[in-house]
């Protein structure tokens, strides 16, 4: 694995190895372990995830075993990513579940400390953490970074005002040319949290950058790789424009790839596209209502209904489905099994009685997704290769001031013949259709963010949508 690294990748690993050796010396001499905060930058396909895997392996090999402090239950390095999809790709956890940020719906961006029992459990697991790796850090907002700092301070019991991230080293990996995190400031901006303002930008003040630039994914098609790099920085040449225009296709073209994932800018365009496709299916259509429950704090009576919320947390009020529908998972059901927010598949069965749908059976595009769920499935003989998806229950906020807590039970699915550009960020797709309708008004940057196409990408742009 190490021998295949190019010079820039090797340099990152060399810097990390030096830190491992310095840390071993510190551990052996009862000194504080040195800290580094590094941003590993680079566009898609330059081997950032590859380097993460090597660094993870090297840290365990060098730091845990050679320091003479080896304890298999003691985590010295943790791989995380902001989204479930990114976490699954690198065999990691989401940052939220790793640091216990999960929990209920949030009304503000202020940092919330965890209760003593949860903190005790976090300390047992992460009290010896030396390195936290955060992949796809462009999706991390400045408040998320601040919360990570505070949570690590809490876990490590640090009260030195000059300490950052509890003394834990941070390797943040990603491409800041990607889209701004949804509802958050960029990771390098000032956080909104009122205490955080005392710190300034944790990113600007602490992180140094190393960059990978050689594209290793599209090696066989360097021209295409270079075109994508120029799109990323909005520096397309005339030739690039000609190549891109050659991919424009009319919806009436007999080769129009209507089944390929369509990418739009707005939710309304996505909904229209998905409804169009659903209507074409001759199988029975189901419009499944969320089951919302709310308990009266005075009487204890449970009220069942369907409530309005400004943040459905991925559980829609109504989920429309039919056998044959393309769908996307909208909640992280089981990250280690790849059943993550963003996983794409097709409905192959719907187990229902007259009154209710019990289970939706989905075959996923990636055979890595849902292997465990399939092995445990009661439907494995009747629907081989299908993953049973059940309703998930999450707390939501409702009421005129969004101050009443309710529970929503709903299938964590949405139709996915089309989706917004934000939903494909960080995905590796063989083919996409990008709607270039006037309404979509994509910037060059948005388009290059829907990156990761491989050399054989069929990147189609309908001339009129
Ligand atoms: N030095 C290398 N030699 C050969 N193959 C490599 C090398 N580095 C990475 N690869 C391979 O290139 C492909 C892309 O690498 P990787 O997924 O690590 O890129 P990335 O920068 O993380 O991309 P993304 O931002 O899309 O996640 C992978 O299949 C990986 O195994």
UniProtKB/TrEMBL annotation:
Coiled coil: none annotated. It catalyses: ATP + H2O = ADP + phosphate + H(+). Residues 320-349 form the DNA helicase Pif1-like 2B domain. GO terms for molecular function: 5'-3' DNA helicase activity; ATP binding; hydrolase activity. Its EC number is 5.6.2.3. Keywords: ATP-binding, DNA damage, DNA recombination, DNA repair, Helicase, Hydrolase, Nucleotide-binding. GO terms for biological process: DNA recombination; DNA repair; telomere maintenance. SUPFAM superfamilies: P-loop containing nucleoside triphosphate hydrolases. Its cofactor is Mg(2+). Residues 37-239 form the DNA helicase Pif1-like DEAD-box helicase domain. The keyword ATP-binding applies. It comes from Branchiostoma floridae (Florida lancelet). Belongs to the helicase family. This is ATP-dependent DNA helicase.
């Amino acid at each position: 694995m190490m021998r295949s690294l190019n010079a820039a990748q090797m340099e990152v690993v060399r810097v990390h190895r030096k830190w491992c050796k310095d840390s071993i010396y510190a551990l052996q001499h009862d000194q504080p372990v040195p800290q580094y905060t590094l941003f590993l930058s680079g566009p898609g396909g330059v081997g950032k995830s590859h380097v993460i895997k090597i660094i993870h392996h090297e840290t365990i090999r060098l730091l845990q075993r050679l320091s003479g402090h080896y304890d298999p239950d003691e985590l010295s390095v943790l791989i995380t990513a902001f989204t479930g999809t990114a976490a699954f790709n690198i065999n990691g956890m989401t940052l939220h579940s790793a640091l216990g940020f999960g929990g209920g719906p949030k009304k503000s961006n202020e940092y919330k400390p965890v209760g003593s029992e949860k903190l005790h459990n976090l300390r047992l697991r992460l009290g010896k953490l030396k390195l936290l790796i955060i992949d796809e850090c462009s999706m991390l907002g400045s408040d998320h970074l601040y919360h990570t700092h505070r949570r690590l301070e809490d876990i490590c019991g640090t009260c030195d005002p000059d300490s950052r991230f509890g003394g834990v080293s941070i390797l943040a990996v990603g491409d800041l040319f990607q889209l701004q995190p949804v509802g958050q400031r960029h990771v390098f901006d000032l956080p909104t949290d009122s205490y955080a303002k005392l710190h300034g930008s944790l990113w600007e003040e602490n992180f140094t950058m190393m960059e990978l630039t050689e594209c290793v994914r599209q090696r066989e098609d360097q021209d295409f790789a270079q075109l994508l790099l120029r799109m990323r920085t909005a520096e397309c040449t005339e030739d690039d424009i000609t190549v891109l225009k050659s991919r424009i296709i009319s919806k009436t073209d007999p080769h129009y790839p209507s089944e390929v994932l369509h990418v739009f800018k707005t939710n309304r365009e996505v909904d229209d596209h998905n409804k169009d496709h659903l209507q074409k299916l001759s199988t029975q259509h189901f419009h499944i209502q969320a089951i919302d429950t709310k308990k009266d704090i005075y009487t204890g009576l449970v009220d069942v209904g369907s409530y309005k919320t400004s943040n459905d947390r991925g559980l829609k009020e109504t989920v429309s489905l039919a056998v044959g529908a393309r769908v996307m998972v909208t909640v992280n059901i089981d990250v280690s099994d790849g059943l993550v927010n963003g996983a794409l598949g097709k409905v192959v069965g719907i187990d229902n009685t007259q009154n209710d749908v019990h289970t939706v059976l989905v075959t996923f595009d990636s055979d890595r997704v849902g292997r465990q769920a399939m092995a445990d499935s009661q439907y494995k003989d009747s629907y081989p290769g299908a993953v049973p998806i059940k309703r998930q229950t999450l707390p939501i906020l409702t009421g005129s001031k969004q101050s009443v807590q309710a529970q929503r039970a709903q299938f964590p699915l949405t139709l996915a013949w089309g989706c917004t550009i934000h939903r494909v960020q960080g995905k590796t797709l063989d083919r996409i259709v990008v709607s270039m309708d006037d309404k979509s008004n994509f910037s060059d940057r948005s388009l290059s963010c829907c990156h990761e196409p491989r050399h054989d990408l069929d990147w189609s742009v309908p001339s009129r949508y």
